[in-house]
């Protein structure tokens, strides 16, 4: 998709469709007013009928308005024009894009230059236009013999905000598109079935990323290499699987070699049967999404390479398949992690933390400024937050605060749960240094407590995305979260 800033009166812009906002009770935005006055009241004729009232998200097409160059005018309901929230601004964009994506045409102009979003800049809005344009055009086609109809829109332009600097707005359009593409990348990987998206497949995709971007290099560790490093915990998860586990290390260099990196660690369980502690059958297909943490790391790495952010960032993905089998780890087995700590595996379905703990120990070698792990770790996170929030736990309050702020800014929100010492004793084991489950209560917190034992040497935050990473039901599919949050966080860091 091509994005640009186009100045001039909306009726004079030569595109296949020009979109304008109508506020509640049919109040015309400045741009709508312009079009209305040159086109013999083509818009107010409609709003006067009350057929279209400007309710948030409503859309209506007008064809062949006189005096308007564009063949179509799309009215998008904006709701209340006062104190327009960022969330509602996004809803306006999504409604407009949904209508546009249904049509057969190649160029669209969003005449939304005078929209003022509360607490957000015109730059934020421009970036969001292209981000939403990208994510609205995502379609899953990978394993369908009949592909969905290709979208025809090739170019989207935007009116500049009053006083907005053209160059800065154009840059924002580019950046938003890069974020949208990163989100789509994560959705693509998340949605692929477990028989295609294996650890080896993820490793291949990471290598492809390095081939595409000169600033990225990839290292793939085999099971043999992980064994040599002592990653007995990670390897215990893949013991029952025919698929070989991989540790995928993706390094992005955007700053001097001496600049310490931020590290992202992704849970990449390409399918989670639960292992010997086998899950129930209902809905088990959704455990193909158990690599969405890894997918978000891949999407984020792709985006920051596009954005050329001036930081060094390392992505580490523990990619495994969790299966029962004659060689599978059994409840009660004790394994030794790379840190040297021994772990009693009381439940083989609490496998994510067994993978992450060795990846977290591996992260130490980068002397990281911060480490964030991203994992579909606990059903308890879904029970606590539903699908709207990323659960956040951290050993550093400043890091947690900045993630909450960044989440608010990009609307990919996180909310912090406590990790007080009182919870740690739930992980006591009679037979090892630590048990891999803390009992039925406070599951998201005890999972994070487990991880914290392996993250003592740096500032660390944990995002449990079990609720946010995918939708169930009719809209079943990966959301691409929390790519936006991770990109926002990295962009907010000083070089
Ligand atoms: N991948 C699951 C977590 C999960 C479950 C995410 C349902 C989304 C929906 C994880 O590996 C798991 O099985 N966790 C267990 C841990 C328990 C055994 C302590 C859980 O949450 O039930
Ligand atoms: Mn599990
Ligand atoms: Zn899992």
Automatic annotation (TrEMBL):
The active site is at 279, 353. Belongs to the peptidase M17 family. SUPFAM superfamilies: Macro domain-like (SSF52949), Zn-dependent exopeptidases (SSF53187). GO terms for biological process: proteolysis. GO terms for molecular function: manganese ion binding; metalloaminopeptidase activity. One of its GO terms (cellular component) is cytoplasm. Its main location: cytoplasm. It catalyses: Release of an N-terminal amino acid, preferentially leucine, but not glutamic or aspartic acids; Release of an N-terminal amino acid, Xaa-|-Yaa-, in which Xaa is preferably Leu, but may be other amino acids including Pro although not Arg or Lys, and Yaa may be Pro. Amino acid amides and methyl esters are also readily hydrolyzed, but rates on arylamides are exceedingly low. The lineage of its organism: Bacteria, Pseudomonadati, Pseudomonadota, Gammaproteobacteria, SAR86 cluster. Binds 2 manganese ions per subunit. Residues 347-354 form the Cytosol aminopeptidase domain. Mn(2+) 2 binds at residues 267, 272, 290, 351. Mn(2+) 1 binds at residues 272, 349, 351. It holds the Pfam family Peptidase_M17_N. Gene3D superfamilies: Leucine Aminopeptidase, subunit E, domain 1 (3.40.220.10), Zn peptidases (3.40.630.10). Its EC number is 3.4.11.1, 3.4.11.10. This is Probable cytosol aminopeptidase. Keywords: Aminopeptidase, Cytoplasm, Hydrolase, Manganese, Metal-binding, Protease.
